[in-house]
Amino acid sequence: MSNVKPNLGMESTSAFLESYFGTKVTELQLITKGETSQAYTFRHQDDDYVIRFNHFEDGFLRDSYAFETLTAYGIPVPRIIDINEFNNMFFAISERVHGNTLDAYKPDQIEFVIPSLVDVLMKLRSANVDSTRGYGPIGHSGDGLYQSWTEHLEAFFCEKQSGFWYGWTELFEDTFLEKRVFDVIQPRMMKYATYCNSVREFVHGDLSLDNALSDGQSLTGIIDWGNARYGDGLYDVSWFHFWTPRFNLPKRFLQCCEAQGIEVPHFEERILCHTYSQGLDALRFYAKTGRLDAYTQVRDHLLSL
């Protein structure tokens, strides 16, 4: 059950790109990171690009939408050159953002650019989304798919799903995913979801060390907007903290808001709601990909809250 991303080899990718551009590409290199997309960097003529292959198109469309929507606010989103189909899957070609993902740096180097990350979060919360409607994942129309954050969470974990999570409840029978854990954590999550319904901002949805790039001085790019949605911007703060607690991003973000005279009502309750939802999603992902050790660590953390 671990084949969640395509597996297109170097030779096949090179041949495809040569056919696509009509001339050879150079410096083709595999990007080993990424949970659902197979990705390569390459050079064509004098420009650097990234190509990604995925079984689903929606994430690429959200990448493009994020570029069109957020660059005006100074958020460094790579430009998408093309999105199309190839060999029963989808591909996206984008301009390459130079720098390394933050997980390639030492902790003290990451600490140096955390203020830049907080700045991106503040710019995200200021992005004007009034011309759109809805909460949750951004659809093809540019609107969210649900009427509230509560409805989004209910739909996100309901039994009937399409795309990547089609048939996910079968994991309770076929893998080590434990329904008893969901039965304990899910009501806690929904209890705090009501505190998130009054906030509607542009949310990255997967803000982590491997989706933020830096040249060592500042952030040069925020990539992989496939989980972009409308809702509570604290979701991004919580997500980063969930996977990288040592930098205490919630405290840093709250301090920044206070310094600017911005009130953040029900901060702890909202963070807790997002922590529960992110943890439950991680549990089913780790079950689907057969990663028991990671599953156990997340499960024990959720039950301890």
From TrEMBL:
<dbReference type="Pfam" id="PF01636">
    <property type="entry name" value="APH"/>
</dbReference>
<protein>
    <submittedName>
        <fullName>Aminoglycoside phosphotransferase family protein</fullName>
    </submittedName>
</protein>
<dbReference type="InterPro" id="IPR002575">
    <property type="entry name" value="Aminoglycoside_PTrfase"/>
</dbReference>
<dbReference type="InterPro" id="IPR051678">
    <property type="entry name" value="AGP_Transferase"/>
</dbReference>
<feature type="domain" description="Aminoglycoside phosphotransferase">
    <location>
        <begin position="28"/>
        <end position="245"/>
    </location>
</feature>
<dbReference type="InterPro" id="IPR011009">
    <property type="entry name" value="Kinase-like_dom_sf"/>
</dbReference>
